[in-house]
Design goal:
Length: about 110
């Protein structure tokens, strides 16, 4: 297993997803610039691809991750690697991750 490229932060954000394996809803439980872990009653399989719509606090419009690969699935949780993210969503994600990182607020 490869080490993570960027730190993950514990969060609880509602998410909806759809892809080649179907659609569902769940909760993002950790988040980084490169991926996330989602808990959901809707099962997904590894090596499938999803589009995500993450509801962020204080935002009327969900953040869309255009393409994410399911890298693992265990029980009601699965891990995703972000593959394609628009520039706007990257900036929103960067701002969010900075706000979650205590090292960014000395």
């Amino acid at each position: 297993m490869q080490p993570r490229r960027s730190p993950r932060f514990a969060v609880q954000f509602p998410v909806s997803f759809k892809g080649d394996g179907g659609a569902g809803k769940g909760m993002v439980f950790n988040l980084s610039m490169d991926g996330c872990r989602i808990g959901s009653d809707d099962a997904v399989k590894p090596n499938t691809y999803l589009e995500l719509h993450i509801d962020l606090p204080g935002c009327d419009v969900p953040m869309t991750i255009e393409l994410a690969a399911v890298r693992w699935s265990e029980g009601q949780h699965f891990g995703l690697e972000f593959i394609r993210v628009s520039e706007e969503a990257q900036e929103r994600l960067r701002t969010l991750v900075r706000s979650l990182d205590p090292a960014a607020h000395p």
